[in-house]
């Protein structure tokens, strides 16, 4: 069956696919994935560096307006010890993620951490940052220190929907301009969205997927929106599709994404695993080639609580590793140990 994915209408039709049609969509995505990026799944050890955030996004559990959060920042030793674990176990890469801060103390601490990880691993560790909106100067400092990739989700490519999910001092255009700066500085650039947001239509998700293509992203990290009680969006929970609907829509979106952008890196997000025990396996089978085992010290994990029922809150690093390996094998993949697993798309672009 020929799957046409050129217009919002065509993509929306496939995003709504059920039964045999959904199976066919996912089968074609799986085959495309094997043909392009192959069966390897790359590991990125996720280190949730701090839950202190100056922003107040309406969907997020660690927003600055949530007074119930016990705020923490990991020490340099804690981060380095997680990074050493990642190196020892052959994870190849780490992701440093945190709430957004832009003060000099924060910027220089990240710079020092990146430098230390590069030095200790003799430049072998692929470092991804996911630290929100920063100035081009800050992005340049972190790049110079050794960071390879940056993840900044656009959350939705619809400026109107974006405005409804954020306070008025958060800017959609600023976020777009950050993505452009990252590109200019030579990062491998990743973005993404949340799927199943209150008030979000299937057509808007289709437009997001076309937006990723138009932005020529190297990596995409997307996943279902999950409610959090201590956020303003909780009041709109009646407008959110059921967990099953969000799951089906997300899986179709992953399949469409792989067909639209065959050679990019796609992550199987923690959020899909949080709404279904087999979620990450299915996404890995269908479309994804990257997974992010949690390497945050487990005494802190419950405090990086972006949404309800987040998984991996109690496991030690070793448990996470064993689970992740089992999960990759169950999805028919092969763990890409001791490899950075850089975006093929980025590689082809920069070879031209
Ligand atoms: N502060 C940085 C990185 C941490 S937040 C930033 O905002 O870019 C990382 C991602 O978590 C966000 O981009 C958002 O897409 C996701 N997230 C936040 N709240 C969520 C929720 N309730 N459900 C699903 N994903 C959520
Ligand atoms: Fe802060 Fe990121 Fe959460 Fe927004 S999504 S409140 S920037 S941690």
Question: What can you see in these coordinates?
Answer:
- The relative contact order is 0.17.
- The model has no long low-confidence stretch (mean pLDDT 95).
- The protein has one domain (8-350): Aldolase class I (TIM Barrel).
- The longest helix is centred in the first third of the chain and has 18 residues, at 19-36.
- The two termini are 33 Å apart.
- The strands form 2 sheets. The chain has an 8-stranded parallel β-barrel with strand order 1-2-3-4-5-7-9-10, surrounded by 5 helices. Strands 6-8 form a two-stranded parallel ribbon.
- Helix 1 packs across helix 8 (202-214) and helix 8 packs parallel to helix 9.
- The protein has helices at residues 8-15, 19-36, 76-88, 104-120, 136-145, 159-165, 172-184, 202-214, 243-260, 270-275, 279-286, 298-301, 317-330, 344-351, and strands spanning 40-50, 93-98, 126-130, 149-151, 188-191, 194-195, 219-220, 223-224, 265-268, 290-291, 334-335.
- The chain is an alpha/beta fold and 352 residues long.
- The structure holds S-adenosyl-L-homocysteine and iron/sulfur cluster.
- Iron/sulfur cluster binds next to loops.
């Amino acid at each position: 069956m020929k799957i046409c994915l050129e217009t919002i209408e065509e993509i929306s039709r496939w995003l709504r696919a059920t039964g045999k049609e959904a199976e066919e969509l996912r089968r074609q995505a799986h085959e495309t994935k094997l043909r392009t990026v192959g069966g390897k799944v790359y590991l990125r050890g996720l280190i949730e560096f701090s839950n202190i955030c100056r922003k107040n996004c309406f969907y997020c559990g660690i927003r600055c307006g949530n007074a119930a959060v016990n705020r923490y920042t990991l020490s340099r030793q804690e981060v380095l010890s997680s990074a050493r674990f990642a190196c020892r176990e052959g994870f190849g890469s780490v992701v440093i993620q945190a709430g957004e801060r832009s003060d000099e103390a924060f910027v220089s601490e990240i710079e020092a951490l990146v430098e230390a990880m590069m030095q200790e691993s003799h430049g072998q560790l692929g470092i991804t940052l996911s630290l929100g909106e920063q100035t081009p100067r800050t992005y340049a400092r972190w790049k110079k220190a050794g960071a390879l990739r940056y993840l900044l989700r656009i959350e939705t490519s619809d400026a109107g929907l974006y405005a409804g999910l954020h306070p008025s001092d958060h800017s959609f255009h600023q976020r777009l301009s950050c993505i452009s700066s990252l590109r200019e500085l030579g990062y491998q650039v990743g973005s993404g969205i949340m799927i199943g947001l209150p008030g979000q239509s299937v057509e808007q998700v289709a437009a997001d997927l076309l937006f990723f293509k138009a932005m020529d992203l190297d990596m995409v990290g997307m996943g279902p929106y999950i409610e959090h009680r201590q956020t303003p969006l909780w009041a709109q929970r009646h407008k959110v599709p059921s967990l099953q609907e969000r799951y089906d829509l997300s899986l179709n979106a992953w399949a469409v994404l792989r067909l639209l952008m065959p050679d990019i890196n796609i992550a199987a997000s923690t959020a899909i695993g949080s709404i279904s025990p087999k979620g990450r396996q299915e996404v890995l089978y269908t479309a994804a080639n990257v997974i992010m085992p949690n390497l945050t010290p487990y005494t802190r994990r419950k405090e990086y609580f972006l949404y309800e029922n987040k998984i991996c809150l109690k496991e030690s690093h070793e448990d996470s590793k064993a689970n992740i390996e089992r999960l990759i094998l169950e999805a028919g993949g092969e763990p890409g140990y001791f490899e950075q697993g850089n975006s093929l798309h980025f590689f082809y672009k920069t070879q031209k």
